[in-house]
Batch of 2 targets.
Target 1
Amino acid sequence: MATAEKSSKENKSSRTAAKKTARASGTKSAAASTDARRKRAQAVASKSAAKKATRVSAKDDKSLSDLFEHALGDIYYAEKKIYKSLPKMIKAADHPELVQALTSHREETAGQIEKLEAIFELLGKRAKAEKCDAIDGILEESESLLEDFGSSVAADAAIIFSCQAIEHYEITRYGSMRAFADALGMDEAKQHIDDILAQEKAADASLTELAEDSVNAAASDYDEE
Ligand SMILES: [Fe+2]
Ligand SMILES: [Fe+2]
């Protein structure tokens, strides 16, 4: 065999061998990456199963009665804070009917606190307030509104503005609690909630009436002058 031919044959066979090695190593690395993918998928699946298991056990731990009790602690905290906040608003109010409405609603609030304590008693629990961020926010805002508008002609309108936010907060909370009590067959608690809810709705309606009939008009008259 001529030397050139021999060397060409040798080159060809070494290229073939190299190709074979490359194919083999490609197959190996493809297998390795499939394996890694499978492991990753398994890890994700087991993580999500663990999360699900936590959720399921959390679901098992809490019931509608627990939610009712939480809501009760929440609104108990709110009513106590509202009771403490009202004197400042009463002092800043100018319209005699507004002063009267806020004063009598403060008295109702004292009665509502007692009703909530009666509900705690029905549950066989000691009355305990749970910090409620929602009412804290509303009351903080009403405080700063009072600072900004308290000595202006729009003071009464600002007080009604704040108080209606409070009333609406209370109406949503008592509305939900009423439905919980109904679902739980807690008739006596539901009756107390119904009574309170009626007072909150009436307070809200009388504030609307007062705003529309005189307070807003008096403040806007001043704007027109
Ligand atoms: Fe209330
Ligand atoms: Fe109220």
Target 2
Amino acid sequence: MTAADSEPQPLPTVCRTAVWTAEMRADESLAPNPCAIDPWAAEFVTAAGPQGPPPGDAEARAFLHAGVAVRTRYFDDYLIEAVRGGCPQVVLLGAGLDTRAFRLPWPERVDVFEVDLPDLLDFKNRVVAGRVPASARRVTVAADLREAWADALTASGFDPARRTAWLCEGLLAYLEPDEADAVVRTMGEHSPPGSRVGVETATSQGRLSCLRSCRDALSADGAPWRWSLRDPGPWWAERGWRMEQPDPASLPYAAERLAPYLPLLREAGDTGGWLLTGTRCGSG
Ligand SMILES: C[S@@+](CC[C@H](N)C(=O)[O-])C[C@H]1O[C@@H](n2cnc3c(N)ncnc32)[C@H](O)[C@@H]1O
């Protein structure tokens, strides 16, 4: 092996977004009153080596950090509740460096499928090599979600007849609208009634002035934010999901963190619907 083989290689930009997200979770883990603690996040950041600074200026990064902190806790709670409510399998689409398979106190043994691009999963699996979650079966599925991916998921042991808790966190914005639509329709085709979904939707980030530097940097780097919805509820309803849309600022752990940003969101005409959870319609 040469020295170059052991050097961390730069990941494609869209995968580097997972490292930047892990960096925010590592910082959050050390903050007073953290929304969530991720003991593995710093390890990923160290292992990734220099990947370039997170995009955007300090204002954008502070906003994104608050958003990542809140959404991590929100989706932690959602997944635990979904498993407790009868979903024995979890699928993390665009899983990135999510460590929920390891770190969540699953109420029962659960299958956790992590779907992401091969480069990202190769890196992640090198870092977590040899570690086994205490109460989950962790399965990684290397796939490009812009292409047909459901067969790879099923081939890895996912059972489309069982209820599933899906999560699309920090993912759909990186897809073209028709690609995001196809991902959601494929989820629906593999979800018996009562399955759950958690999703982060870009509702106003395209108009938020404090995110302009981040938006521009990601676009220049080849991973622009492409997809957003102004009014997510009806869009999901058309695709067979009944969505709930909490006001994140009303969540006890989020109120203080988001307070400085509420005027900016209002100014951008934010309609809510940033963090959503939903249930697959139908009887069964
Ligand atoms: C911002 S990160 C979010 C990661 C993780 N969900 C989290 O919140 O920490 C976006 C992730 O989506 C993945 N991703 C983007 N486009 C993808 C695609 N076409 N197929 C599979 N994964 C994709 C990236 O590799 C990256 O891991």
